[in-house]
Amino acid sequence: MSENAVRPALRPARGSARLAVAGLGLAGAAWALRAVWHVRLAVAGEPASGPPDRGEGRHRPLNALENSYHLVSAAGDILVLLCAAVFIGWLWRMRDNARALSGEPPRYAGIWVYASWVVPIVNLWFPRGIVADIHHRSAPGHKLPAVVNVWWALWLVGLVSGLGLTYDDSTDEIIARAYHGVTGLLVGDLAMVGAAVAGILMVRTLTALADRRLVHIGD
Predict the structure, then answer these.
(1) Cβ atoms of residues 163 and 178 within 8 Å
(2) Is residue 123 part of a domain?
(3) Are 153 and 125 spatial neighbours (Cβ–Cβ below 8 Å)?
(4) Inter-residue long-range contacts of 79-83, CB under 8 Å, 24+ positions, other chains counted
(5) What percent of the chain has pLDDT over 70?
(6) pLDDT tens digit string along 71-107?
(7) What does pLDDT average to over the chain?
(8) Residue 141 structural domain
(9) Is the pLDDT confidence value at 183 over 60?
(10) Is residue 1 part of a domain?
(11) Could you tell me the CA-to-CA distances from 181 to 11, 71, 170, 176 in Å, in that order?
(12) What is the DSSP string of 79-146?
């Protein structure tokens, strides 16, 4: 049966919003902790033995600070994945409610709720488009809250800095970047922390607007 054949039931999104807010808070804390370690690495300076990754698959033994950064980075990756899972869960609930409220199919196919974050080029605007479409259908007549654009602008800064959801650099390469150019890393870190904070405000704002309409319909 096609996605457009069944109209989903209306369900309050407060529970999924709370999970998304918690996930975003944890992800923001993880990025803040990475920023602290990036500063620590920059202050310590690169050891005389050179960067951890020598290229061609050769790596030197890590010192204590570098080992601790690997732990911070791994924990942060887990928290970011958890955040992604609960945020997408909130998007699905809001998307279903928007469809039920408007009686119209979403602008974007369901696969893009997942794939839009990782497909190159598409990930520059599809996720924001999905959020904007949800808001348009669930709260017609309300202008898109400015926090949506703030959240997306900060996310793009983090993405361009190479610190987004699917960054390509290995942990050892990030350590080398901290030794030789920590400013770019810190800009990305702060952008990601800001995106998490803006994301929390966005989730709360859009959920409140949509749930207000649900209550009005229920009355």
Answers:
(1) no
(2) yes
(3) no
(4) 79/23, 79/26, 79/27, 79/29, 79/30, 80/27, 80/30, 80/165, 82/23, 82/26, 82/27, 83/20, 83/23, 83/24, 83/26, 83/27, 83/196
(5) 90
(6) 999 999 999 999 999 999 999 999 999 998 888 889 9
(7) 88
(8) 14-218
(9) yes
(10) no
(11) 48, 21, 16, 8
(12) HHHHHHHHHHHHHHHHHHHHHHHH-S--SS-THHHHHTTTSTTGGGTHHHHHHHHHHHHHSTTSPPPH
| 59: enclosing H helix or E strand | strand 58-59
Other C-beta atoms closer than 10 Å to the C-beta of 99 total 21
Domain count, the chain: 1
Are the beta carbons of 103 and 110 closer than 8 angstroms? no
Residue 73 lies inside a defined structural domain of this protein: yes
* Residue 163, in any domain of the structure: yes
pLDDT above 50 (res 2): no
